[in-house]
Write a structure and sequence with these properties.
Length: 168
């Protein structure tokens, strides 16, 4: 990632704001399920700037969204999960997109972070047993894996076509 200049900070701020809107207002939320497109600004930050910027967009977007527009109680584990999503996207998809890399990023994100780690946070926060909760969240992952794969693939193609001129 290049040094933090004014343009980069403004872009990260804009992507963070988009993350908040997509996560808090344009997603389906239940106490243990969340289906939405908040991964898109995190992917764009990862694609253009790498894992650090993507982790900032994901983590800061979750933290500010939870403080400004709470859906439930704030729990820092969810912020860690959002930041980790940015790291995974950044490590696998920054300047190197291919079908296997996109599939790996989406599967690591959905199966590793969302299904396993976020389920652990929900279990700790609400005192629910982990394994039954895990079983209920499999549906969310089954829905989001193909959605994320197709959306990230489409955005990667579009960003490659237009280059990074508009953001970088």
């Amino acid at each position: 990632m290049k040094k933090f200049d004014t343009k980069l900070l403004v872009t990260i701020g804009m992507l963070t704001a988009v993350h908040i809107v997509l996560s808090r207002f344009l997603s389906i939320n239940a106490w243990n399920l969340k289906i939405g497109f908040a991964f898109v600004p995190v992917f764009i930050a990862a694609y253009c700037y790498g894992p650090t910027a993507a982790a900032i967009v994901g983590g800061l977007g979750d933290f500010l969204g939870a403080i400004l527009f709470p859906i439930g109680p704030y729990f820092p584990g969810f912020t860690v999960s959002c930041a980790l999503t940015g790291v995974v996207f950044g490590l696998l998809l920054h300047r190197r997109q291919s079908v296997p890399r996109i599939a790996a990023a989406v599967c690591l994100n959905q199966l590793g972070i969302s299904l396993c780690v976020t389920t652990l946070w929900i279990s700790i926060l609400y005192g629910s047993p982990y394994l039954p909760l895990l079983a209920t969240r499999v549906l969310q992952c089954a829905v989001l894996i193909p959605v994320e794969f197709l959306v990230i693939g489409a955005f990667a193609q579009t960003l490659m076509r237009f280059g990074r001129r508009g953001l970088a």
